[in-house]
Request: fold
Amino acid sequence: MTKKRTHQKPRGPATLAIHGAARSRRAHHAVSTPIVQTSNYYFDNTDDVLEFMQSKKDGRVTREHEYGRYGNPTQEACEQKLAAVEGAERAVLFSSGMSAVILTLMTYMRPGGHIIFTNDCYRQTRDFATKLLAKFGIEVSLVEPTAEAINKAVRPNTNILFTESPTNPYLRVLDLSAIGKFGQQRGVLTMIDSTLATPYNIKPIEKGIDIVIHSATKYLGGHNDLLAGVVLGRRSLLDELYRMQRMVGATPGPLACFLLERGLKTFGLRMEHHNRAGLAVARMLESHPKVERAYYPGLASHPDHAIAREQMRGHGSVITFLIKGGDAQTRRFIDALKLFLITPSLGGSESLVTQMSTMSFFDYPEEYRRSIGIVDNLVRLALGLEDVEDLLADLEQALEEV
Reply:
């Protein structure tokens, strides 16, 4: 007789991305979540309106929806799955990754406060930190992406730490357990942009991080066909952020939410491929005679390889590397590629390539670009879902043109 299981392991990320934490009843018994394409929701009569308004005032909501800027059934179904995948109590979806980043910072920053950012980060995040936060009376420090550097930068008025892991573009990986621990000890709110890691490869909340942010445009959506951002964390902590989102209206449309939830159904399968392809390509580039250096957390040569190996399941499919030569050789390599599209972004089904100095950082002075490591021969690859052997062959033939 088969022994009945009394305890089951927690569901894996692929299962959670498909089913969420619990099965929910959908309209018309639909298997896929319907797209509720409406901007507002009607009331039956005036008494219905008054009852709803009183329930909001009393903190007991008698109906789910009122106006599209405040939420949508398709959006909420997607948020529930994202929270389950990340291991968070709550998820709040935004219209883009940067709207999620900026509104989260604006929600929790305090007058006269000090925010620590790591210096290897997404260009728009850096610009917001260095060019706009001063207008709100916020002090900013940019530090090396290590737990030690962050800890040393904490001041009496520090209330937020914001970092990425892995960072962009050099893929530095931080010791999230150490950051979460001293954040709790020193009363600093810790925020991680975990877009490049994804919840498949690491769950920062399990390491003690307060707030996790993703550009859902990338790996979570996975098909280069939507814009969205998501913020995840404790339910009570995100209440203030949800009120900010309602006020500003940075809400994703129902179709974007539908596409994002559909993308999540293949999340586990895609991440397995991304992790496998990323390591194979990184190893090939590192050993190639026309490559000066490759940066990928899965390589033993990466400065944070030990941390990445300990805390991450895999390392994704973004690789940055230096071509031997300068601007002309780098352009020749990129223009010779046949499978890679020249465009920003990452985590989708198509492979993408950027020469960082000519796209993301083109309008920065050359001296400043070099000071932050953006040199002319720096290339970022964002691998898609093509066959790994085809990607390797395309890179090999393009490198022959250098």
Q: What stands out?
A: The two ends are 67 Å apart (CA to CA). The first strand starts at residue 90 and ends at 94. The chain has 15 helices and twelve strands. Residues 267-287 form the longest helix (21 residues).
